[in-house]
Amino acid sequence: MATLKALIPCLALLLFVSMISFSEAREFEVGGKKPSWELPSSPDAFNKWAQRNRFQIGDTVVLTYDAKSDSVLEVTEKNYQTCNVSNPIRSYTDGNTKITLDRSGPFFFVSGAEDHCQKGQKLEILVLSAKHRSLGHSPAPSPSETHHHHHHHHAPAPAPSNAGSGLRVGLMSGAAVVAVLALV
Ligand SMILES: *[C@@H]1O[C@H](CO)[C@@H](O)[C@H](O)[C@H]1NC(C)=O
Questions:
Q1: Which domains can be identified in the chain, with CATH numbers?
Q2: Ligand 1: which atom is nearest the Cα of residue 76?
Q3: pTM higher than 0.85 for the full model?
């Protein structure tokens, strides 16, 4: 009986760890600062930031800006390339826009303010497919792979090892809980 009692904290810990691992969705402040959505200091600043991050389904990006003078427009890839804001897929005007990345693949955002897109206030976010989450120790992509050509959408860079291992740890501790419970 003593051993059973001693197991309880371990079980609780395992359960806790597996819960953390499964609720991995994160929130990203675009550009890593506030206000985040404004004319960038260099034209590709937003995409440089985006390329340093690995976005997964369920993650949220946060864009803060002055709602009186700016907005966020989700557009098609074509309209993103040409900064055509006339027919956005979605527009956000609340000044503190949270967008949940609910599917894999690329998302394209541009500023709705006059000329801001042309000056580089545009952002492409590539969300890794669910398949990539379960891949473990793939090497980080080489710089040439992270380039902003649209071809790379068809061959997204592999997930970093920590994303996959986080999930694996979750699965393994979940399995451990089940195994221990079965023994008890
Ligand atoms: C902008 O996009 C809209 C619809 O997506 C299209 O009708 C229009 O011709 C485009 N304008 C330019 C300048 O390409």
A1: 2-22+135-183 (no CATH), 27-132 (2.60.40.420)
A2: 5
A3: no
